[in-house]
Amino acid sequence: MKKTRLIIITFLFMIILSGCSSKNSYEGSEFLMGTVVNVKLYNSSDSGKVALDIFNEIYELEQTISWRMEDSPIAVLNRTGEVSKTGFPEADEIFPVTKKLYDNSEGAFDITAGKLSVLWGIGTSDARVPSDDEIADALKYVDGSSVVVTDSDVTIGDSQFIDLGSIGKGYACDRAREILEKSDAEGACIAVGGSILVYGRHNNKDSYTIAIRDPDGSISDYIGTVEVNDCVVSTSGDYEHVLESEGVKYHHILDTSTGYPVGFPGESELKSVTVICHDGILSDALSTACFAAGLEDGMKLARQYGAEAIFVTRDREIITTGIQLDNQISDK
Predict the structure, then answer these.
(1) Which residues lie closer than 8 Å to 315 by C-beta, 6 or more apart?
(2) Is 119:130 a contact under the CB 8 Å cutoff?
(3) Kind plus residue range of the DSSP H or E element containing 37
(4) Which of 19, 238, 284, 332 could be cross-linked to 251 through a Cys-Cys bond (beta carbons 3.0 to 4.6 Å apart)?
(5) Whether residue 278 has pLDDT greater than 90
């Protein structure tokens, strides 16, 4: 199945690339990791191959870290409670980051909340509001301290369930950067869902202008822009995936202490958090952790990691760690 998928991707992008006006630039997209992956490349002598390598790399990563893939190392870990690092070298990149952030966020960020995520199913066709008893049962298995990584394997607690959705898209950006660093591409912008990698130069400019989405607006509305380079920009918000039931809206970022969406009952303190730093895994994970932790603790967490962050509160107040927000849009 994997080989078939790769052939399909290759064939698809051969068709797309045949219509490009310049071999030195590329712009295209593919549906991977449950989202649209957009790739823009600037000034590469073989932009088509570089783009294809990036898409295939992200596809392969999905086969490795998604619990939805039956034979992935994460799926094996969830079924058996352990997995050998022989076939899972990514473990040394993933788990030190997630374990440290679990500790530093006092459990607000926890990859063992998989049973809760699946129970709610927000963002899928199976979304529903679970009962209090179901939530209480799922909470029994949420404990990030039970993840143990040794030189040979990774183990988790009995019946625990790992979900790496909070780091996957940022990690995909890291893997894309590795390919870019081996290529002759002068610059690139890679968007994987809510995580965006900017790399190198483009159109004789050293920086990229990234719009920060307005959490109360449509996908094209923004609250302001930032000038960045050689980093990953990740955003988490209560608008991304929402379940509405009996007039109540439930967002997908869950409080690992209550089992309900952060802020429930009522509304969360924050509408969105954007985190900017070099590492994609950390950028993606921190945006979730800072949202779950709330404004005060989230600000401390971002500064602890030396990351820039932009917080949009429930009252539409915009608070940053110091990064300049340009072209700021006034309140609606």
Answers:
(1) none
(2) yes
(3) strand 35-42
(4) 238
(5) yes
Give the span between the Cα atoms of 140 and 44, in whole angstroms.
Answer: 51
The tokens describing 292, both together, are 């779950």
Q: What is the pLDDT of residue 327?
A: 82
Omega before residue 265 within 30° of 0, cis: yes
Residue with tokens 């990563």: 61
**Cα–Cα distance, 270 to 238 (Å, whole number):** 8
Helices (H), the chain: 2-17, 47-65, 73-80, 91-104, 114-120, 132-139, 168-181, 280-293, 295-304
- Dihedral pair phi/psi, residue 55, rounded to 5°: -60, -45
Tokens 């298995």 identify what position?
Answer: 141
The pLDDT value given to residue 3: 43
pLDDT for position 22: 53
pLDDT at 9: 40
Contacts 24+ apart (CB under 8 A), 23-26: 23/47, 23/48, 26/50, 26/51
Q: Is 332 a residue whose pLDDT tops 70?
A: no
